[in-house]
TrEMBL record:
GO molecular function terms listed in the Swiss-Prot or TrEMBL record: guanyl-nucleotide exchange factor activity
Alphabetic keyword roster: Cytoplasm, Endoplasmic reticulum, Mitochondrion
Membrane found in the keyword field: no
Cited Pfam families: Arm
Native organism taxonomy: Eukaryota, Metazoa, Chordata, Craniata, Vertebrata
Location within or outside the cell: Cytoplasm, Cytosol; Endoplasmic reticulum; Mitochondrion
The protein's name in its UniProt record: Rap1 GTPase-GDP dissociation stimulator 1
SMART domains, A to Z: ARM
Statement: the UniProt record of this protein carries the keyword Membrane: no
Gene3D superfamilies in the record: Leucine-rich Repeat Variant (1.25.10.10)
One GO cellular component, as annotated: endoplasmic reticulum
Length: 534
């Protein structure tokens, strides 16, 4: 009995045929089971009513029980029935998250994984399993169940047998969502997937066929995804001596943009702990990344620029790497991208420079006196459409002052109109940014108050500080640094007058009993200063 015509599906449901059909699934006759499975699969195909009726009649659980009990039988007739039942479950749950979740709760995943392992010689049944895995793997709730099976081993074993592009692509479509799970990443690495991916890259790198280019991209992208897991990444790094790490390094000087991209992203992923970063910098990776960036300055590939800058940013995090990277000329290479109009590149450029100058006074002063850089930062501080770029520009502006403590840097920032942005940054929703702004502003007030006075006044700094101190939600360090800044502003006649007019004494005196000792002590000192100067 077939119901392949979509106009017949709802009448079949309305006529009450589904419950009797589901009852036929309890038959001992294999042919009856086969035809019933086909009929129910057709009724469920693209039909909400059909699926709902099968669900209410308990059809899915009966089919899963059949798959479980028939799983180990390898004769052709049984494999045909298993294929039909898998197809029926796919039609039943396709593009329906709640029904897919129901199948997962019924234990369909371990059953299908076992099925794949036993029947991997059967192309039709294998294909059905792969499509089912692809659908189920999109659900986050499936990952834990997949991780508790030997799915990684089975997929890698199957992958190694495939020579056709289409078949490998089908397996890739299952691997990609599964590899988002860290436990499965490690299982795939241990099952030997990386070696398969490296082999594909080697085979396809010089091909100009569309399918080969697509497969190279898929393989290298998946390789990068596997490196996002901490355990899988560390296993492949092997102290910087592993075959996989060395092969990935060879991608960076390649002429293939996809491999350059994957190589740079892989380095960025390897550079997620200090030990790896230090080893890589000591072994010349910085020079390789700088060479790569130099090849992409004029009309370069934006994704490669972004990836290489990401890698440099991560490598610059350990303190011992900063001076080495500065002396290698990283800032000069990075500054070549200052003219970029691409927000992702701007964002990584800013982050890399900020990491490099952390506690590096000389480098911070050198960059802070670079008028072109400071003007570009001030411009990007207004990039309201790109919050990340705007935030990083503000943070770098503040960092230049905090790490250089230089009057020349402060003058350059004042002349470029940067003061108002630092004042606005003090009102950020992020405490770390507020704090960075207040420390930078305190240095400005201590070192170059006369130069910055008018800009601080027009940016309404005093009113903002009053608000921060009066707001109970302000973090202790924000209150503390706001009071330090108030004291520093007293050297300006006009700002001093603003402080007096806003009756800061009332707000500050309340903070003497603050639960944070540093805040309470600073409140006493500030109160004394305000009283003396009133």
């Amino acid at each position: 009995m077939y119901f392949s015509n979509k106009f017949m599906r709802i009448p079949c449901v309305d006529a009450g045929l589904i419950s009797p059909l589901v009852q036929l699934l309890n038959s001992k006759d294999q042919e009856v089971l086969l035809q019933t499975g086909r009929a129910l699969g057709n009724i469920c195909y693209d039909s909400h009513e059909g699926r709902s009726a099968v669900d209410q009649a308990g059809g899915a659980q009966i089919v899963i029980d059949h798959l479980r009990s028939l799983c180990s039988i390898t004769d052709p007739a049984n494999e045909k029935l298993l294929t039909v039942f898998c197809g029926m479950l796919m039609n039943y749950s396709n593009e329906n998250d709640s029904l897919q979740a129901q199948l997962i709760n019924m234990g369909v995943i371990p059953t299908l994984v076992k099925l794949l392992g036993i029947h991997c010689h059967n192309a039709a049944l294998t294909e059905m399993c792969l499509v089912a895995f692809g659908n189920l793997a999109e659900l986050e709730s499936s990952k834990e169940q997949f991780a508790s099976t030997n799915i990684a081993e089975e997929l890698v074993k199957l992958f190694k047998k495939q020579i056709e592009h289409d078949k490998r692509e089908m397996i890739f479509e299952v691997l990609a969502p599964l590899a988002e799970n860290d436990a499965i990443k490690l299982q795939l690495v241990e099952a030997g997937l990386v070696e398969c991916l490296l082999e594909i890259v080697q085979q396809k790198v010089d091909s100009d066929k569309e399918d080969d280019i697509a497969e190279l991209k898929t393989a290298s992208d998946l390789m990068v995804l596997l490196l996002l897991g901490d355990e899988s990444m560390q296993k492949l790094f092997e102290g910087g001596k592993g075959n996989v790490f060395q092969r990935v390094l060879s991608w960076i000087p390649s002429n293939n943009h996809q491999l350059q991209l994957a190589g740079a992203l892989a380095i960025a992923n390897f550079a997620r702990n200090d030990g790896n970063c230090i080893h890589m910098v000591d072994n010349g990776i910085v020079e390789k990344l700088m060479d790569l960036l130099d090849r992409h300055v004029e009309d370069g590939n934006v994704t490669v620029q972004h990836a290489a800058l990401s890698a440099l940013r991560n490598l610059a995090i350990p303190v011992v790497n900063k001076a080495k990277m500065l002396s290698a000329g990283v800032t000069e290479t990075v500054l070549k991208f200052l003219k970029s109009e691409m927000p992702p590149v701007q964002f990584k450029l800013l982050g890399t420079l900020r990491m490099l100058i952390d506690a590096q006074a000389e480098a911070a002063e050198q960059l802070g006196r670079n008028v072109k850089l400071v003007e570009r930062l001030v411009e990007w501080c207004e990039a309201k459409d790109h919050a990340g770029v705007m935030g990083e520009s503000n943070r770098l502006l503040s960092a230049l002052i905090r790490h250089s403590k230089s009057k020349d840097v402060i003058k350059a920032i004042v002349q470029s109109g940067g003061i108002k942005h630092l004042v606005t940054m003090a009102t950020s929703e992020h405490v770390i940014m507020q704090n960075e702004a207040l420390v930078a502003l305190a240095l400005i007030a201590a070192l170059e108050l006369g130069t910055a006075e008018k800009d601080l006044e027009s940016a309404k700094l005093v009113q903002i500080l009053h608000r921060l101190l009066a707001d109970e939600r302000s973090a202790p360090e924000i209150k503390y640094n706001s009071m330090v800044l108030i004291c520093a502003l007293m050297g300006s006649e006009s700002l001093h007058k603003e402080v007096q007019d806003l009756s800061f004494l009332d707000v500050v005196s309340k903070l003497r009993s603050h639960e944070n000792k540093s805040v309470a002590q600073q409140a006493s000192l500030t109160e004394q200063r305000l009283t003396v100067e009133s």
